Amino acid sequence: MGEIAVGRGNWANASARSKARKANLLNETQMRQLMQQGPDTIAASIADAGYSKELNLYSKRLSGADLIEAALSHNLDRDLSEVMGYCQGRLRRIVSVFALRFSYHNAKTVLRAVNSGVSSEDLANMVLPEENDLNTDWLELANQSNTLADAALSMRGTPWGSGISGVDSDAPLQVYEDVLDRHYYRDAVSALKSSGHEHRALLTHLRTEIDYRNIINLLRALRQNISTEQRSELMLEGGQTLRDNMLRNAAQAESEEALIEVLRRLPNMDTSGLEEAIQAAGESGGLDPVVSYLESQQRDSLRRLSHRNPLSAFPVIYYLESKVLEVRNIRLLVRGKAAGLSDEVIEAHMNI
Hints:
Layout: H1 11-23, H2 28-34, H3 39-58, H4 64-86, H5 89-99, H6 101-116, H7 120-126, H8 136-144, H9 148-154, H10 159-164, H11 173-193, H12 200-223, H13 228-234, H14 244-252, H15 256-264, H16 272-284, H17 288-308, H18 314-338, H19 343-349
């Protein structure tokens, strides 16, 4: 049975507007056409796909790949603000659970900049351009922080700031990032649980995402020879199938083969495609095939849920995820072109 719209909110209107925006995103054919172009030509091509305003704004001081990178980030921020602006009532509260992860991402960006000693000026030029008004507070925060502890203190009063307020002042960056991930998912699960049983499919979707994050974290930890105790500390709670004993068993697996055996025993976990992705990752030396596979599984699920639940938050969330994917693909494409990578290598890292 599909989820239904309940409570105050413009469910039908927001769903229709999100579907219209989704239809205007670049399709697979258009994305492959971009692969045949250089950075300057790509900029001209994506201008007609809704990026012209930001490209014109940054063309005053940037060009080539730098121009496209800045325009993509600014456009995504503007798009997110517009979507949140047309969601009302209970719908807005539900969508904000997923939209808040963008703020957590920016918090990580600032922490990484502070940890690396990147100046606020360089941060403004490279990652959080000051032409974007939404970056003003983030840049000010970076400018006022000399250490990770300073940055954490400056973030107090925010959801992400409360998450890292208890971290030891001398903790490394990875600890801060892990705590942010744990805090986001814990609060997101709690928010969806309190939204009522009619949104249980959304909660299942989020919990499956946690499962996938745990699988990736475990594979990365095994390749880095991290101890069992440390692997357990990396685990995110609240997953759909990797819970309690199963989560502990997965963390105790001493090899990829042992981890797969644990996953095979999980209900509703199809490991055939995952095993192929893990094998491909072993051949390539990186985890990109696994990440791409799990992300595609989650997107396919979100697409089906969006079609099955037209008067719900799913069409809005599916659009946001699709927009993020478009921006990421274009960014990877431009970076790859600028680095002189072949089209085959670039495509292997994209999701099209």
